[in-house]
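User: Show me sequence and structure for the first protein, then do the same for the second.

Assistant: Starting with the first protein.
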Amino acid sequence: MFRSWKAGLFLILMILIVGSGCARQTGPGTVLPLSTPTMAGSLPDNGHGATALTAYPIAEAQAKQWNSQAVLYQIPVARLMEKNLGLPSDLLGWFFMFKVPGSPVEYYIKVVQGRVLGVTEAQPIIIGEAPYTYLPIDLVTLPIGNDAAFRLFMEDGGKDYLTLHPRPIFDYRLVHLEGQPNPVWSIFDAANLDQPPLFNVDAVTGQEVGDPFAK
């Protein structure tokens, strides 16, 4: 069992590093079907085991113990968080980032197999004007979860990616940035985290979009 950990103040850098341009050739604006029934049971491992929605209530309960006003602001890339915090990556799980609206303090929770494995607080150091403003996310009401986002990816280029990269390590990010209409799921290959997302999809409409961090 891991101990709870305390991170440094570098987490904002990690988030900005992965927010580079989109790698997909199919551009934003494409509306994709939500699922293909014939693919059921034949999808490759999409990572993490349980869905983000399944893990979320455990994280929310922990966050409310930290502060009763805490709300979800981001699901960061789990394996990038593990790398920056020096944690082992053999236990698949989810990170959730909570904040109290108006406060700069970020509260990160890792959930694995139905239990909280660790927590950390961080306060990003930003020189000048913040490049992005995160908005709260109501994960429970989103029509597109990470499992649906993964199906969309597989139906629109994911199979081709697998032919060229037979051992991917899929990972996810969910953010809602100010100025953008809805939260966006992004799918990464954690074996190449220095590369931009493989796929980005609007978590409300199911429409393929660009990387929310791309300028």
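Switching to the second protein now.
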Amino acid sequence: MDDVWELETLEQVKKASDYINYLYEQAIHGKVSSRNMLKRIYDGDNWDTIKERMNTEGSCWFVWYMDGVNNLISMSR
């Protein structure tokens, strides 16, 4: 059985990243629906965890952030 790898285009990654950043800005300003969507994108992480991670830098942050980007892209398929 062959594994099939479907790579996201840079455009998909950029749009998903922009949308996550938009949701985060809305969530920081109290928009509950944006917080709920971020929780869904990040597999049920709670808002405090998401907020803490979004304000972190480094390779662990990048892996976590890109997991969300990939989750969002897969949700839209």
